[in-house]
Design a protein that fits this description.
CATH class of the largest domain: Alpha Beta
Oligomer: single chain
Helix content: 40-55%
Order of helices and strands: HHHHEEHEHEHHHHEHEHEHHEHEEE
Strand content: 5-15%
CATH superfamily of the largest domain: Aldolase class I
Bound molecules: iron/sulfur cluster
Distance between the termini: 13 Å
Number of strands: 11
Largest sheet: 3 strands, parallel
Radius of gyration: 21 Å
Strand order of the largest sheet: 8-1-9
CATH topology of the largest domain: TIM Barrel
Structural class: alpha/beta
CATH architecture of the largest domain: Alpha-Beta Barrel
């Protein structure tokens, strides 16, 4: 049964590679070469037996000789095995307290120099206005990330968390990536552990997944050589998990990376998850080139987006959720992704700047009715969740009031 108590539909129930399911996938008729077909059949057998896929399996799943639709069918059956027919969303808002940043990541259209007219820093009042707006719109979560402002001290960053937590305690604060935590380390000379403990005392609820980009140094050194490296990124998430702080993880794809960099990236995440179990959701992020130093590159196609979702679901066997982030994918692709391995579509979102500065053409907000409708149109059952994946029950008389229900457990794995 699904978390809603209703029987999930349509669930493959582990029949991933019977002759029947292969026939249903049209594998026999696919114009795959023999090597690709054999390779894919071996991968199907492993998935059916709940065996872990290897680095080489991951590379094969990106091989264009294996059609996207069969990879998707396999990923979807795993997705349904884990989550039944439900798809999750939340009611959330974004807060980017400053865009002034000491770094110059080549893929970033959001950052600003200190004296650039585009640069801004939010004061206490502006933060309060955003908190109030979030509260009045029934948000359960604020996603807080921004630039590394060299004139603002650690207390300013911490103060945003403590202010919001004190004034709007019902809103979960998912804040600061390892890039920021690494910067706080530099500012305070304290350890990552002490900083996270201090931020938690201030009101931090969990960590977002950003700053991961691509871990492999062949790519990372070309994109963002100065900011937190892979080692720092994992140190921060490992420490957070050890402290009981949950987090998400991401991968920025569709720029200069190749398939082996993506698989390497996923396997590093899978390995930390084996150690700590602290990741909730993996979010593949499609690169948007407008207004970046890489504006000569093309935005990845929907087919690339969907294959990444599907491959992620198959490779990340220990991370419960795969998110189709509609802001980056576009609404239509995000909908399709709910049948390609994704089980979460992110939230209503409000005040998204980072990807809109880079040319995202999606709306900056969706109404609750619209996001539920988008999920229902795909045949999935929409479930509102909080940041830590508990079901949310809204008061029908007053939308701003909610109660937190049970933890949304996996149907199977
Ligand atoms: S991605 Fe983050 S760290 Fe890099 S330039 Fe943009 S705001 Fe700064």
């Amino acid at each position: 049964m699904g978390p809603s108590g209703r029987a999930p539909w349509p669930v493959s129930h582990g029949i991933l590679l019977t002759e029947k399911s292969l026939a249903r996938m049209g594998l026999a008729e696919m114009t795959m070469n023999i090597t690709a077909k054999d390779r894919f059949q071996e991968i199907c057998r492993k998935v059916e037996a709940r065996q872990r896929l290897s680095f080489d399996d991951g590379i094969a799943l990106y091989d264009p000789a294996i059609p996207l639709q069969v990879v998707a069918e396999l990923a979807n059956s795993v997705r349904e095995r884990m989550h039944g027919n439900v798809a999750y969303y939340n009611i959330n808002t974004h807060l980017n307290p400053t865009n002034v940043c000491i770094y110059r990541c080549r893929f970033c259209a959001f950052r600003s120099d200190l004296r650039d007219p585009k640069g801004y820093v939010m004061d206490e009042r502006a933060v309060r206005v955003r908190g109030q707006e979030a509260f009045e719109n029934g948000c359960t979560e604020m996603h807080i990330v921004g630039g590394l402002h060299h004139k603002m001290g650690y207390d300013w960053y911490r103060g945003i968390i403590s202010q919001l937590h004190a004034e709007f305690p019902s809103i979960h604060l998912k804040a600061w990536t390892p890039v920021e935590v690494g910067w706080f380390e530099h500012l305070t000379k304290k350890s990552v552990r002490d900083i996270l403990i201090d931020l938690r005392e201030a009101g931090l609820g969990s960590l977002p997944g950003g700053g991961a980009e691509i871990f492999h140094s062949e790519v990372r050194d070309q994109l963002c050589e100065h900011k937190a490296n892979a080692h720092k990124w994992f140190e921060v998430h490992r420490t957070a998990h050890q402290l009981g702080i949950r987090s998400n993880c991401t991968m920025l794809y569709g720029h200069i990376e190749e398939a082996h960099h993506r698989i390497d990236h996923m396997l590093r995440l899978r390995s930390l998850q084996d150690e700590t179990g602290g990741f909730q959701t993996f979010i593949p992020l499609a690169f948007h080139p407008d207004n970046t130093e890489l504006s000569d590159l093309k935005k990845p196609s929907a087919l690339v987006d969907l294959r990444n979702i599907a491959v992620a679901r198959l490779m990340l066997d220990n991370i419960p959720h795969i998110k189709a982030y509609w802001i980056m994918l576009g609404i239509e692709t995000a909908q399709v992704a709910l049948h390609y391995g994704a089980d979460d579509i992110d939230g209503t979102v409000r005040h998204e700047l980072i990807y809109h500065d880079a040319g995202a053409t999606t709306p900056e907000i969706l109404s609750v009715e619209r996001i539920r409708e988008l999920i229902s149109e795909t045949g999935r059952e929409p479930i509102e969740r909080d940041t830590l994946y508990h079901q949310i029950h809204r008061d029908p008389e007053d939308f701003r009031k909610w109660t937190t229900g049970k933890a949304l457990e996996l149907v199977g794995n």
